[in-house]
Write a structure and sequence with these properties.
The complex is a heterodimer of chains A (223) and B (228). With 223 residues, chain A is an all-alpha fold. Chain A has one domain. Chain A is 83% helix and 0% strand. In chain A, helix 1 packs across helix 5. Chain A starts with a helix and ends with a helix. Chain B has a single domain, classed as P-loop containing nucleotide triphosphate hydrolases (Rossmann fold, 3-Layer(aba) Sandwich). In chain B, helix 3 packs parallel to helix 5, helix 4 packs across helix 5 and helix 5 runs parallel beside helix 6. Chain B is globular. The chains are: A mainly alpha (223), B alpha/beta (228). Chains A and B meet through helix 1 and helix 4 of A and helix 2 and helix 3 of B.
Chain lengths: 223, 228
């Protein structure tokens, strides 16, 4: 039942995004603008650009995840659909897993595009282990999606609404951004030592976020 | 805020065989009482019209029964399950048609219903007949965002037909409907009555008398009596 509900919610979210392109049309220009602005601010120093590119890439992904997850829940709240999720008998944790999965896949797609921008603008090398780089991208965006899929709900509920989202999300996902940035720096510079540790840390955070989200989503959804 | 202790009007009958049995339920929003000391008993298979003006507490009462919101004070049972501890069981058998359509504008009419079926594990075989009954077969593949208010309301009614809940809670079901669509609502009520389902209709417009067993009157968040 958990898999069926999660798959149904994720498929619904992705279908809506493909049709409306509401999140990506807002998030992608935002991420691209951030990268362009920072690129110009840093100047033409190729080495400096390459050294800072991984951090800028994950910073853009972080801000994009906040906006993307907020928009995902705006869709749920537009006609009160969130209440439908609450009043259905489906496992609320499974609904969360579906929302997190959809957020992860959208962030991964976004990350692929922004990586392309960074490679072109900043000359970021892919390094000797592109598969490990892809794994880093997957684990990092999974962490952002897992946390955003949970806390995006706060942006459409309660008194604080959207103001609460960055205040809560940013400190919580900082370890993910740091681990993903460190792993990306090491991989793009061809230094594979220590990458395993950062990837393990990312995986641990992903699992912790997913488990926490599964357990508390229903409580956040309730009156 | 202290809620006064009124001599609460009640429609309480015997809890035995009750689909809804609430005792002295109060719900506060920011300290203000939306409903106060409401006790009501609705028998299984009964159709009850909750009559009252805007702001009388009808919607809040339905939302409490649907477990969309919890009572601040008081409690009760719905379909034999405790209002708070048995929420999951109540939700599995109850449909609330409220002010929110709960539709996704970027999904088609058919996809909206498929989503509900997939989510709840309901047989999607009932979707096509339901759309036909509410007159939306021709626009089944049109996005709900392009629908008029009346068409959206019809789609919500189709969702009720697909789910076939044991307890149906209708909040202003005639609002925004043209005469043809009002017939759909009446058909739904007649079918529910025929199938022995319990129905509560909150409306300031009267449903056809043949479709309701009794009328309960609300005013100022309280049950003030019962019409014959």
């Amino acid at each position: 039942m958990i898999v069926r509900v999660a798959r149904t919610v994720a498929a619904k979210d992705l279908r809506i995004e493909v049709r409306s392109r509401a999140a990506l049309s807002a998030v992608l220009p935002f991420a691209a603008t951030v990268l362009l602005a920072l690129g110009f601010a840093l100047g033409p120093d190729r080495l400096l650009l390459q050294q800072t590119a991984p951090g800028l890439l994950w910073l853009a992904a972080l801000f994009a995840s906040v906006e993307l997850c907020h928009r995902s829940y705006l869709t749920e709240s537009a006609n009160g659909a969130l209440e439908g999720l609450l009043l259905g008998p489906a496992d609320k944790g499974a609904i969360y897993l579906g929302k997190a999965t959809a957020a992860f896949l959208q962030l991964l797609a976004l990350f692929a595009v922004t990586t392309g921008i960074v490679v072109v603008l900043f000359g970021l090398p892919m390094g000797p282990a592109p598969l490990l780089l892809a794994l880093t991208a997957a684990l990092g965006t999974a962490g952002l999606g897992a946390m955003g899929g949970l806390l995006g709900l706060l942006a459409v509920q309660g008194r604080t609404r959207q103001a609460a989202l960055p205040v809560i999300v940013l400190p919580l996902v900082t370890p993910v951004v740091i681990a993903a940035t460190r792993a990306t720096v090491s991989l793009t510079q061809g230094q594979l030592d220590g990458v395993g540790g950062w990837l393990s840390l990312l995986a641990a955070f992903d699992l912790a976020f997913l488990a926490a989200g599964y357990l508390v989503f229903g409580h956040l959804l309730e009156d | 805020m202290t809620v006064p202790e009124p001599a609460a009007a009640t429609t309480a009958r015997s809890p035995a065989g009750s689909a809804v049995h609430l005792t002295r339920v109060t719900r506060l929003f920011d300290g203000l009482a939306a409903i106060t000391q409401v006790s009501i008993d609705v028998g299984a298979g009964e159709s009850v019209w909750l009559r009252g003006s805007n702001g009388s507490g009808k919607s809040t009462l339905l939302r409490v029964i649907a477990t969309a919101i919890s009572p601040t004070y008081g409690g009760g049972t719905v379909l034999g399950h405790d209002l708070v501890r048995g929420r999951a069981a109540i939700r599995a058998r109850t449909e609330l048609v409220g002010h929110n359509t709960r539709l996704y504008d970027d999904l088609t009419a058919s996809e909206n219903l498929h989503f509900v079926c997939d989510l709840l594990g309901v047989d999607p075989g009932g979707i096509a007949p339901a759309l036909e009954r509410v007159g939306l077969t021709e626009v089944a593949t049109v996005r709900a965002g392009n629908f008029s208010q009346g068409m959206r309301q019809r789609l919500v009614l189709a969702r009720c037909l697909v789910r076939a809940p044991r307890l149906l809670l209708l909040d202003e079901p005639y609002a925004g409907l043209d005469p043809d669509a009002r017939v759909v609502v009446d058909d739904l009520l007649a079918e529910a009555r025929g199938a022995g389902r319990t129905v509560l209709i909150a409306s300031h417009e009267a449903p056809p008398a043949r479709l309701v067993h009794r009328t309960v009157v609300m005013d100022g968040g309280r049950l003030i009596g019962e019409d014959p």
